[in-house]
Amino acid sequence: MKKIIITIDGYSSCGKSTLAKQLAAKLNYLYIDSGAMYRAITLYFIQQRVDWADIFQVKTALDNIHLEFVHNQLTGQSDMFLNEENVEPMIREMVVAEKVSEVAAIKEVRNFAVAQQQKMGAGRGIVMDGRDIGTVVFPYAELKIFMTADPGIRVQRRFKELYAKNPNITLHEVKENLELRDYIDSNREASPLRKADDAIILDNSNLTMDEQLDLVSQWVEDAIMSHSS
Ligand code: DC
Fold first, then answer.
1. Total structural domains in the chain?
2. DSSP assignment, residue 121?
3. Cβ atoms < 10 Å from Cβ of 108
4. Ligand 1 centroid to residue 99 C-alpha, Å
5. Residue having the nearest C-alpha atom to atom 16 of ligand 1
6. Residue 146 falls within a domain, yes or no?
7. Residues 108, 53: contact at Cβ < 8 Å?
8. Which parts of the chain fold into alpha helices (H)?
9. Whole-number Å distance between alpha carbons of 179 and 11
10. What pLDDT is stored for residue 116 in this prediction?
11. Nearest alpha-carbon partner for 66 in 113, 132, 126
Protein backbone atom coordinates (compact mmCIF):
# COMPACT_ATOMS: atom_id res chain seq x y z
CA MET A 1 0.00 0.00 0.00
CA LYS A 2 1.21 3.53 -0.78
CA LYS A 3 2.87 5.27 2.16
CA ILE A 4 1.97 8.87 2.79
CA ILE A 5 2.96 11.83 4.94
CA ILE A 6 0.52 12.72 7.72
CA THR A 7 0.89 16.07 9.44
CA ILE A 8 -0.78 16.95 12.75
CA ASP A 9 -0.68 20.58 13.81
CA GLY A 10 -2.53 22.42 16.51
CA TYR A 11 -2.49 24.13 19.88
CA SER A 12 -0.53 22.88 22.88
CA SER A 13 -2.00 19.90 24.73
CA CYS A 14 -4.68 18.93 22.24
CA GLY A 15 -3.43 15.36 22.23
CA LYS A 16 -1.45 15.64 19.00
CA SER A 17 1.34 13.33 20.08
CA THR A 18 -1.05 10.71 21.48
CA LEU A 19 -2.88 10.52 18.18
CA ALA A 20 0.33 10.64 16.15
CA LYS A 21 1.84 7.73 18.13
CA GLN A 22 -1.31 5.65 17.78
CA LEU A 23 -1.47 6.26 14.05
CA ALA A 24 2.21 5.51 13.52
CA ALA A 25 1.89 2.23 15.45
CA LYS A 26 -1.23 1.22 13.55
CA LEU A 27 0.21 2.02 10.13
CA ASN A 28 3.75 0.99 10.92
CA TYR A 29 4.94 4.52 10.10
CA LEU A 30 7.70 6.58 11.68
CA TYR A 31 6.52 9.10 14.29
CA ILE A 32 8.41 12.36 14.66
CA ASP A 33 7.72 14.76 17.52
CA SER A 34 8.94 18.06 16.08
CA GLY A 35 8.23 19.87 19.37
CA ALA A 36 10.86 17.69 21.07
CA MET A 37 13.47 19.27 18.80
CA TYR A 38 12.50 22.82 19.83
CA ARG A 39 12.45 21.67 23.44
CA ALA A 40 15.96 20.16 23.17
CA ILE A 41 17.33 23.33 21.57
CA THR A 42 15.73 25.36 24.40
CA LEU A 43 17.28 23.06 27.00
CA TYR A 44 20.70 23.56 25.42
CA PHE A 45 20.24 27.37 25.42
CA ILE A 46 19.25 27.31 29.11
CA GLN A 47 22.07 24.96 30.15
CA GLN A 48 24.73 26.85 28.19
CA ARG A 49 23.34 30.25 29.19
CA VAL A 50 22.90 31.33 25.58
CA ASP A 51 21.42 34.80 25.30
CA TRP A 52 18.91 34.17 22.54
CA ALA A 53 18.33 37.87 21.97
CA ASP A 54 21.84 37.85 20.47
CA ILE A 55 21.69 36.26 17.04
CA PHE A 56 25.42 35.65 16.95
CA GLN A 57 25.17 33.53 20.12
CA VAL A 58 22.18 31.69 18.66
CA LYS A 59 24.05 30.79 15.47
CA THR A 60 27.15 29.64 17.37
CA ALA A 61 24.99 27.52 19.67
CA LEU A 62 23.13 25.90 16.76
CA ASP A 63 26.48 24.95 15.21
CA ASN A 64 27.16 22.95 18.37
CA ILE A 65 23.83 21.15 18.59
CA HIS A 66 23.30 17.65 17.30
CA LEU A 67 19.78 16.26 17.57
CA GLU A 68 18.79 12.67 17.05
CA PHE A 69 15.78 10.47 17.79
CA VAL A 70 16.83 7.11 19.20
CA HIS A 71 14.48 4.15 19.53
CA ASN A 72 13.95 3.08 23.15
CA GLN A 73 13.54 -0.70 23.41
CA LEU A 74 11.80 -0.47 26.79
CA THR A 75 9.11 2.04 25.93
CA GLY A 76 8.91 1.34 22.21
CA GLN A 77 9.08 5.14 21.68
CA SER A 78 11.77 7.41 20.28
CA ASP A 79 13.79 9.41 22.77
CA MET A 80 15.27 12.81 21.98
CA PHE A 81 19.05 12.86 22.18
CA LEU A 82 20.90 16.17 22.44
CA ASN A 83 24.62 15.87 21.68
CA GLU A 84 24.52 12.11 22.38
CA GLU A 85 22.66 12.52 25.70
CA ASN A 86 19.11 11.29 26.29
CA VAL A 87 17.24 14.46 27.33
CA GLU A 88 13.76 12.97 27.07
CA PRO A 89 12.55 13.52 30.66
CA MET A 90 14.23 16.93 31.01
CA ILE A 91 12.70 18.52 27.92
CA ARG A 92 9.18 17.89 29.27
CA GLU A 93 9.78 19.92 32.43
CA MET A 94 8.23 23.30 33.15
CA VAL A 95 11.55 25.21 32.97
CA VAL A 96 11.75 24.24 29.30
CA ALA A 97 8.00 24.70 28.63
CA GLU A 98 8.26 28.25 29.95
CA LYS A 99 10.88 29.25 27.39
CA VAL A 100 10.33 27.01 24.37
CA SER A 101 7.87 29.25 22.54
CA GLU A 102 10.31 32.16 22.72
CA VAL A 103 13.13 30.04 21.32
CA ALA A 104 10.91 28.44 18.66
CA ALA A 105 9.99 31.92 17.38
CA ILE A 106 13.60 32.61 16.30
CA LYS A 107 13.97 32.32 12.53
CA GLU A 108 17.44 30.71 12.64
CA VAL A 109 16.20 28.10 15.12
CA ARG A 110 13.26 27.27 12.85
CA ASN A 111 15.44 26.98 9.74
CA PHE A 112 17.74 24.62 11.63
CA ALA A 113 14.89 22.38 12.85
CA VAL A 114 12.82 22.43 9.64
CA ALA A 115 15.77 21.35 7.46
CA GLN A 116 16.23 18.26 9.66
CA GLN A 117 12.50 17.50 9.77
CA GLN A 118 12.29 17.60 5.98
CA LYS A 119 15.21 15.19 5.70
CA MET A 120 13.59 12.75 8.14
CA GLY A 121 10.38 12.73 6.15
CA ALA A 122 11.97 12.30 2.75
CA GLY A 123 11.13 8.59 2.63
CA ARG A 124 7.41 8.96 3.47
CA GLY A 125 5.45 6.67 5.75
CA ILE A 126 5.66 9.24 8.54
CA VAL A 127 3.43 11.01 11.03
CA MET A 128 4.84 14.32 12.28
CA ASP A 129 3.18 16.61 14.79
CA GLY A 130 3.90 20.26 15.57
CA ARG A 131 2.73 23.75 14.66
CA ASP A 132 3.92 24.33 11.08
CA ILE A 133 4.21 20.82 9.67
CA GLY A 134 1.34 21.09 7.19
CA THR A 135 2.09 24.70 6.28
CA VAL A 136 5.91 24.86 6.10
CA VAL A 137 7.64 21.51 6.63
CA PHE A 138 5.49 19.33 4.36
CA PRO A 139 3.12 21.61 2.43
CA TYR A 140 2.60 18.75 -0.05
CA ALA A 141 1.60 16.12 2.58
CA GLU A 142 -1.25 13.83 1.54
CA LEU A 143 -3.14 14.17 4.85
CA LYS A 144 -3.09 17.24 7.06
CA ILE A 145 -4.92 17.41 10.37
CA PHE A 146 -5.41 20.53 12.45
CA MET A 147 -6.26 19.63 16.04
CA THR A 148 -8.12 21.69 18.53
CA ALA A 149 -10.01 21.17 21.80
CA ASP A 150 -11.80 23.25 24.40
CA PRO A 151 -9.17 25.30 26.35
CA GLY A 152 -10.52 24.15 29.74
CA ILE A 153 -10.21 20.51 28.71
CA ARG A 154 -6.68 21.08 27.44
CA VAL A 155 -5.60 22.66 30.75
CA GLN A 156 -7.05 19.71 32.69
CA ARG A 157 -5.29 17.17 30.48
CA ARG A 158 -1.95 18.93 30.73
CA PHE A 159 -2.31 19.43 34.49
CA LYS A 160 -2.95 15.72 35.01
CA GLU A 161 0.14 14.85 32.98
CA LEU A 162 2.45 17.30 34.79
CA TYR A 163 0.97 16.68 38.26
CA ALA A 164 1.87 12.99 37.99
CA LYS A 165 5.52 14.02 37.75
CA ASN A 166 5.42 17.08 40.00
CA PRO A 167 2.68 17.41 42.65
CA ASN A 168 3.77 21.00 43.38
CA ILE A 169 2.45 22.22 40.07
CA THR A 170 -0.74 24.32 40.16
CA LEU A 171 -3.64 24.46 37.72
CA HIS A 172 -3.08 28.21 37.44
CA GLU A 173 0.56 27.76 36.37
CA VAL A 174 -0.42 25.23 33.72
CA LYS A 175 -3.22 27.47 32.41
CA GLU A 176 -0.93 30.51 32.18
CA ASN A 177 1.76 28.51 30.38
CA LEU A 178 -0.67 27.07 27.83
CA GLU A 179 -2.25 30.45 27.13
CA LEU A 180 1.12 32.12 26.72
CA ARG A 181 2.48 29.39 24.44
CA ASP A 182 -0.64 29.43 22.26
CA TYR A 183 -0.37 33.20 22.00
CA ILE A 184 3.33 33.24 21.06
CA ASP A 185 3.02 30.24 18.72
CA SER A 186 0.08 31.83 16.86
CA ASN A 187 1.41 35.37 16.69
CA ARG A 188 5.12 34.97 15.93
CA GLU A 189 6.42 36.30 12.62
CA ALA A 190 8.26 33.13 11.51
CA SER A 191 5.79 30.42 10.44
CA PRO A 192 3.06 30.99 13.03
CA LEU A 193 0.65 28.26 14.01
CA ARG A 194 -2.21 28.31 11.54
CA LYS A 195 -4.39 25.79 9.80
CA ALA A 196 -3.22 24.87 6.30
CA ASP A 197 -5.95 25.59 3.75
CA ASP A 198 -6.25 21.91 2.94
CA ALA A 199 -6.10 20.61 6.53
CA ILE A 200 -9.04 18.82 8.15
CA ILE A 201 -10.07 20.20 11.54
CA LEU A 202 -10.26 17.68 14.36
CA ASP A 203 -11.94 18.98 17.53
CA ASN A 204 -11.54 16.19 20.06
CA SER A 205 -13.19 17.91 23.07
CA ASN A 206 -15.96 15.31 23.11
CA LEU A 207 -14.30 12.32 21.45
CA THR A 208 -12.93 9.25 23.18
CA MET A 209 -9.49 8.06 22.05
CA ASP A 210 -11.08 5.14 20.21
CA GLU A 211 -13.60 7.36 18.41
CA GLN A 212 -10.82 9.71 17.43
CA LEU A 213 -8.61 6.94 16.11
CA ASP A 214 -11.49 5.40 14.11
CA LEU A 215 -12.35 8.74 12.56
CA VAL A 216 -8.78 9.58 11.60
CA SER A 217 -8.10 6.05 10.33
CA GLN A 218 -10.91 6.61 7.86
CA TRP A 219 -9.29 9.88 6.74
CA VAL A 220 -6.00 8.02 6.27
CA GLU A 221 -7.68 5.37 4.13
CA ASP A 222 -9.35 8.05 2.03
CA ALA A 223 -6.07 9.94 1.60
CA ILE A 224 -4.20 6.80 0.54
CA MET A 225 -6.96 5.88 -1.91
CA SER A 226 -7.13 9.31 -3.46
CA HIS A 227 -3.34 9.49 -3.89
CA SER A 228 -2.85 5.96 -5.19
CA SER A 229 -3.72 6.51 -8.83
O1 DC B 1 4.38 20.19 20.80
P2 DC B 1 5.13 20.74 22.00
O3 DC B 1 4.24 21.34 23.05
O4 DC B 1 6.12 19.77 22.57
O5 DC B 1 6.00 21.94 21.40
C6 DC B 1 6.82 22.74 22.20
C7 DC B 1 6.92 24.14 21.62
O8 DC B 1 7.67 24.09 20.41
C9 DC B 1 5.60 24.82 21.29
O10 DC B 1 5.21 25.73 22.28
C11 DC B 1 5.87 25.53 19.99
C12 DC B 1 7.12 24.95 19.44
N13 DC B 1 6.92 24.21 18.19
C14 DC B 1 6.96 24.92 17.02
O15 DC B 1 7.09 26.13 17.04
N16 DC B 1 6.87 24.27 15.84
C17 DC B 1 6.71 22.93 15.79
N18 DC B 1 6.65 22.33 14.61
C19 DC B 1 6.62 22.20 16.99
C20 DC B 1 6.72 22.87 18.19
1. 1
2. T
3. 14
4. 11
5. 131
6. yes
7. no
8. 16-27, 34-47, 55-63, 94-104, 107-120, 151-165, 171-187, 209-226
9. 10
10. 96
11. 113
Residue 85 included in any domain: yes
Nearest partner of 107 among 192, 12, 193, 178, judged by Cα: 192
Domain contains 160: yes
Ligand 1 site, residue 154, Cβ cutoff 6 A = no
Residue 229 lies in a domain: no
**pLDDT of res. 121:** 83
Low-confidence ranges of the chain (pLDDT < 50): none
Domain extent at residue 121: 5-209
101 lines ligand 1 (CB under 6 A): yes
- Taking alpha carbons only, the member of 98, 112, 89 closest to residue 41 is 112
pLDDT value for 229: 66
Q: Name the residue at shortest CA distance from atom 13 of ligand 1.
A: 35
pLDDT digits (tens, 9 = 90+) for 18-51: 999 999 999 999 999 999 999 999 999 999 999 9
Residue 190 maps to which CATH number? 3.40.50.300
